[in-house]
Automatic annotation (TrEMBL):
Source organism of the structure: Shewanella metallivivens
Limits of the ABC transporter domain: 12-249
Stored SUPFAM superfamilies: P-loop containing nucleoside triphosphate hydrolases
Top-rank taxon: Bacteria
Lineage: Bacteria, Pseudomonadati, Pseudomonadota, Gammaproteobacteria, Alteromonadales
Name of the protein in question: ABC transporter ATP-binding protein
Amino acid sequence: MSNNSVRNTSAITVTNLNKTVVTQEGELTILNGINIEVKQGDSIAILGPSGSGKSTLLGLLAALDTPTSGEIVLDGVALSGLNEEQKAALRKQKVSFIFQSFMLVDTLTALENVMLPAELAGVTDAKQKAQAMLERVGLSHRLNHLPKQLSGGEQQRVAIARAFICEPKVLFADEPTGNLDSVNGDKIADMLFALNQESDTTLVLVTHDLHLAQRCARQLVMESGHLSEPAAEDGQHNSTSEAQLVEAN
Ligand SMILES: Nc1ncnc2c1ncn2[C@@H]1O[C@H](COP(=O)(O)OP(=O)(O)OP(=O)(O)O)[C@@H](O)[C@H]1O
Ligand SMILES: [Mg+2]
């Protein structure tokens, strides 16, 4: 399918999304009336201060968590109609997630961690693919290290290789360059946008990295559970200005 024919397909539609949790201090509203439409092949950066609800939103969009109210439609499927098993199947089929805390399997080596989703998907040359992916993130010398034997930035790159191995339809990444130096950060950003261009993977990135955010087609800002799109509100068609992003961060 050409990019043009898929551009108008909705990858994610969010309507009136709310997330409230009960804490010892009472009810806490984390997300308040979120609405977004993301097209297939789009790239979105979500910025905003710590504690504003960015990771919570990403978890809901990826069907890892359940909203208090509202609807999320992921690649044509309404998440509210699915049970846990169906959500897991949908994630496996369409979604990859790079977690803020990496979530590598402690007992598996770097290579085994990256192979895992490919093996679960029944890919026959999972090991070769995983090796090639780890090479791309600059870790061919660390294939047999366990996560605890890797630095934070190395663990992040293993998590990125694992997220890429099955060419997901939608890739969610929570601070994908948060632990990387600028050279490795740029390399990972290049990989993210190559996947976006070559495989038409939709990117939804949470980031404090303004350089990465500006490479995305759209920039959204989360503030106290409210999401806005400054560029759209200004009636501009180009990306949000650096000054706006600095302020949002
Ligand atoms: N299960 C929960 N129970 C209580 N409070 C929660 C829960 N999950 C999140 N929160 C609170 O909701 C707020 C938003 O959390 P979230 O992790 O989404 O923030 P964030 O924008 O990703 O922040 P950061 O940039 O620091 O990663 C935080 O104040 C957090 O303490
Ligand atoms: Mg977070």
